[in-house]
Write a structure and sequence with these properties.
By secondary structure, the protein is mainly α. Helices cover about 50% and strands about 10% of the residues.
Length: about 100
C-alpha cells in the first residue's frame, strides 16, 4: 500500500522505504535501490526546482497484479518527496525533422 505524504521528515520517509523494501522479492531489490539512489540525487541537485522532469522507466514486460504494484511502488519511491514531477515516456523511436 503506497503512503502519500506532502510533508514528512527524513526519518519517516526512510521508514516507509524500508517497509516497502522488506515486501519486495530479492530480484527486485536492486531496481528499488536504484530508485532510492536516483531519488536522493534528484533531491540533492534539484532542491530549488519548481518541477523535475524524469524519464519514466518502461513498465514490466510481464503483467500481473504483483508486478503492477511493484512498478507503481518503484515510481512512488523514485518521486517521493519531490514537489512536482513530470514523468516522460517516449515510444522508443526518435523522429528528427529538419526544416529548411
Amino acid at each position: 500500500k503506497a503512503v502519500v505524504s506532502t510533508q514528512s521528515t527524513g526519518k519517516e520517509e526512510e521508514e516507509r522505504i524500508t517497509v516497502r523494501r522488506s515486501q519486495l522479492p530479492t530480484d527486485q531489490l536492486l531496481a528499488m535501490d536504484t530508485s532510492v539512489k536516483l531519488n536522493q540525487l534528484v533531491k540533492e541537485y534539484s532542491d530549488t526546482a519548481s518541477m523535475v522532469m524524469l524519464n519514466m522507466p518502461p513498465p514490466p514486460q510481464y503483467k500481473d497484479a504483483i508486478t503492477d504494484q511493484n512498478y507503481v511502488e518503484y515510481l512512488d519511491v523514485l518521486t517521493e518527496g519531490l514537489p512536482r514531477v513530470l514523468l516522460v515516456r517516449g515510444s522508443g523511436t526518435e523522429v528528427v525533422t529538419v526544416y529548411s
